[in-house]
Design brief:
Helix content: 25-40%
Number of strands: 10
Strand content: 15-25%
Oligomer: single chain
Distance between the termini: 6 Å
Order of helices and strands: EEHEEEEEEHHHHEHE
Length: 249
């Protein structure tokens, strides 16, 4: 894995980049080598959640300036991998929401480092149950969309019995599909979230492309910083420079 040292005003953070996400790895290495991140702020900090940086508009930004929409002018194709998850210290790509970004493409430069919380096993079980319910709902909605013409025809004909029968069949089909492809936390995820901590509700939603290998105490300091109502630290926390280090096996 390639590593990058991020020198901040609170200390150094070293991140290793996953080879399983080559597009994000190569993009982050390119920007780091070019000095793109030098002088940028951690502009969005939420305690017990994450710290976010990489917005070029944050460089020298006066207090009160709205931040979070800047970038290099391109996005990166999503590389969401179920084996890479939001444990504490995970390096992830920020992005726009699903309503305007259904393919979940990542910001070209903005990233966040997870802090999160430690969860009890019972909490993870309840979260897993909710994930499975959401999976069925999404599968059902996809099936409804695929049968749109048939549904519209039944509505025009006021075929209530036909609609009821189709609904029951699609619900069953959605449930069967989800049973055949169940989602949930692996043993590794459960262990990490119940001991180290993280943000499990973000899994499968954003690209995780690396992790902190040194300087987690610096991340803790950043996430503990006092912030304004827009989540910007009251005292600027900046990236002084980034340094691409030698790859490690």
């Amino acid at each position: 894995m390639s590593t990058v040292k991020i020198t901040t005003t609170l200390g150094d953070i070293v991140v290793s980049l996953y080879d399983e996400t080559p597009l994000h790895r190569d993009n982050f290495l390119k920007l780091a080598a070019e000095g793109y991140y030098d002088g940028l702020l951690f502009h969005r900090v939420i305690k017990d959640f994450m710290v976010q940086g990489g917005d070029p508009d944050s460089k020298g930004a006066p207090a009160g300036k709205r931040l979070g929409m800047g970038g290099p002018g391109y996005t990166v194709k999503a590389e969401i991998n179920p084996r890479l998850f939001h444990k504490r210290g995970a390096l992830c790509a920020a992005r726009l929401g699903d309503e305007v970004n259904p393919d979940r493409e990542s910001s070209g430069s903005q990233f966040y480092i997870v802090w999160g919380s430690v969860y009890k096993p019972a909490q993870l079980k309840q979260m897993e149950k909710q994930m499975q319910q959401n999976q069925v709902t999404i599968a059902f909605n996809d099936l409804v969309a695929a049968h749109k013409d048939e549904i519209m025809e039944m509505r025009r004909n006021r075929d209530r019995a036909g609609l009821q029968d189709l609904q029951e069949r699609l619900i069953q089909e959605a449930q069967d599909s989800c049973k055949a492809n169940p989602i949930g936390f692996t043993e590794e995820q459960t262990e990490a979230y119940s001991t180290l901590g993280g943000t499990p509700h973000l899994d499968g939603q954003y690209t995780v492309f690396g992790e902190v290998t040194e300087g987690l105490d610096v991340v803790e300091q950043i996430q503990s910083a006092a912030t304004s109502p827009d989540d910007r630290p009251c005292e600027d926390i900046a990236i002084i420079k980034t340094e691409v280090c030698q790859s490690v096996q």
